[in-house]
Amino acid sequence: MPNSDDKMDIHSPSFEALSELADEHPSNYFDVEKDQSKLIAFYLPQFHRVAENSEWWGPGFTEWNNVSRAKPNFEGHVQPNIPRDLGYYDLGNVETMREQADLARIYGIGGFCFYHYWFSGRRILSTPVDNFLKSDISMDFCLCWANENWTRTWDGDTKSVLLAQEYADGDAEAFFDSIADALGDERYIKISGEPLLLVYRAKAIPNAGKWFAIWRKRAQQLGFPGLHIAVVDFYDISHPNEVGANSLVEFPPHKFNGPQSRPDVIPKITNSDFKGGIIDYQRVVLQSALRDVPRFKLFRGIIPSWDNTPRRQDTPVIVLNSSPRLYGAWLRYLRAYVRSESPEESGRLIFVNAWNEWGEGCYLEPDQKNGLSYLEQTLKSSFYRKGADEESGIDGARKQLFDALTHEEGSDPASGKASPAKRRAKLTLYTPSSFSQKIAFALRSRPLMLKIAKFVYVASLRLRGR
């Protein structure tokens, strides 16, 4: 029995997540409908010991080492982020994955997208997924080939390579053989009967179209009508036809973290060695809401937050101003988008980045700061008001999201609260072209040239009154 003196914190994120709509819309005023879009959360099969990480980073290393030793970089910066309900778990134990799946399913996650690490026949971090395939865990899933080099900088660059992708002769066939058993699992996610396979860096594959044709033929030989290949909407691609894929998958903060996403006020930096980037969650959300509907299949994506300080203490990318409430508003908008633009039921997918990327500050799992709040918002987004929300459509959903953006209070640790009118004015945005994004990506290995290009870009925006 709770103590009679106990008081509920009405300002806690959990209380707000569960109660904020109760007074806005009387329960008998609208019929509530279950949204049919499927949320798929990217899943990092790390957090267990492997020989390679012990060799490269020290005995017994897992990502928890990075997470636990992270330090704040500025005033108000919360580091380290400490897990709550699931603790510092070990994914070598399949029962941990069962607990994760149970928690995810309760709060509306429809599937995991496991990263698949494969290097010319060599698999890394394979134990969790192998254990999952042998289990009866009730959770749909798909795979994403994380085909970047492994490097000491954690970002797939070509310097300080620990394990490189080779794309050797015969690798296309060998790769497909490595995932064939998973594709045949009854839990594997399919679109119109075709298994869904994601590729992280499609443009890195020499003649990707040839590889994809081989995979589709192999899938047909297994009895499937084909293979739905979705590639991550990375900086170097703007249409799936460029590589012969079926669709693109949004992957925030990719393509959302340019100069147009900088906050108006930067908090006071306390780390004298800090050379990282700071962007504004609200501006990321705004870019998502303003994205035009493309003429190809695009799976929308969302992040609850982002802060890869654990991996890059002095040079991280940090997203300010995220909150469970704003995440929930963004997710409700994306669900409305999918209801409007995806008539095919099996194609109504939204990707959440991520379930457990603790090293990138990008996770739905409960932590000490927010508890279950992000998961509670995920569950709340599963329902919409039949009639009212349907009539207002995507434009109405966008307006509701804009209202949430302009009324978000106290989100900036440096500037405090702002009035809705002032905040709306601050959220004017110029979205860069895909051409400018490709230039920025091409110059990232030349810091001086990139700095000059960014300066010219920002100056041109100011001259045009942006």
From TrEMBL:
InterPro entries: WbsX. Pfam families: Glyco_tran_WbsX. It comes from the Bacteria. Keywords: Hydrolase. Gene3D superfamilies: Glycosidases. This is Glycosyl hydrolase. GO terms for molecular function: hydrolase activity. It comes from Mesorhizobium kowhaii.
